[in-house]
Amino acid sequence: MDRWQAMRIxxxxxxxxxxxxxxxxxxxxxxxxxxxxxxxxxxxxxxLFVRTTRSVKLTExxxxxxxxxxxxxxxxxxxxxxxxxxYATPSGTLAVTAPxxxxxIHVLPIVTDYLDTYPTMAxxxxxxxxxxxxxEEGIDVAVRIGHLSDSxxxxxxxxxxxxxxxxxxxxxxxxxxxxxxxxxxxxxxxxSMGARASPEWRFAQDQRVxxxxxxxxxTNEAGIAAALAGWGLTRVxxxxxxxxxxxxxxxxxxxxxxxxxxxIHLLYPEGRRAPAKVRTFVDFAAARLRACRTLN
Length: 296
Prior knowledge:
It is a single chain. The longest helix has 25 residues, at 60-84. The protein has helices at residues 3-16, 19-25, 30-44, 60-84, 100-117, 169-175, 220-228, 242-246, 276-290; strands at residues 49-51, 56-58, 93-98, 122-127, 141-145, 154-161, 163-167, 189-192, 200-202, 208-210, 215-217, 233-237, 251-253, 262-268. Helices cover 39% and strands 22% of the residues. The protein folds into 3 domains: 3-84, Winged helix-like DNA-binding domain superfamily/Winged helix DNA-binding domain (Arc Repressor Mutant, subunit A), CATH 1.10.10; 93-158 and 262-295, Periplasmic binding protein-like II (D-Maltodextrin-Binding Protein, domain 2), CATH 3.40.190; 163-257, Periplasmic binding protein-like II (D-Maltodextrin-Binding Protein, domain 2, 3-Layer(aba) Sandwich), CATH 3.40.190. By secondary structure, the protein is an alpha/beta fold. The strands form 4 sheets. A 5-stranded mixed beta sheet has the order 4-3-5-14-6, with helices on one face. Strands 11-8-12-7-13 form a 5-stranded mixed beta sheet. A two-stranded antiparallel sheet has the order 1-2. The protein is elongated.
């Protein structure tokens, strides 16, 4: 029996904790499974399993060996798939999620251009202001704005974005321009109370201000609309008010007190074994987002 097949058998025994079940799943006889494990143990000079009449458990050396086996076997599968072409050509439907405004402004044009480049592909977008469970909701690629938790997924940084305080020129002319974060207590503030909203705004040098908003909204768009109307101040991500800034309808205040920009990542679960539709889209989107001046 070749070494690769023996490694597959050992990995399956570790998974099932049973020689008999492994034999059934691999269409082999139980004695053949036993002989394969024994031959491999003799070849490497280490005992992989502790066997009793009731249980099969990995030894410490066996645990390390099985972990290496799984990695090697996965690499072999990937190499065979690549050689066969199943990972070479994008196919199927690509599911992408992003925060609502970021998705509409930045991600949707990338998705449509990607579909023009790969006309046999289809795509599904989910643009929402909540953290989407990538696995449960069948997402291939997620755009995350903010610092990542250790999810175990592959992540590619594509830029960063400022968190800014803004108001209309008319409001600032009437009520004055705040010079320090503490001055916000003397102004009317509209706050979006989203899933990750906090009443505490953080600024540079670990300055923190607890905001008591005169207006709470459930969307960033509503807070921006209030600021555009001259009602008060609001705090948003820079890209969300790009057109209003360029047109002079909003002004940024407290720029010298801003906290460091927050990172933007593309997140996907399969890592380097991701199918072609994921790998090609991540490369395509990363290049576009990194070239966007407002995100770097």
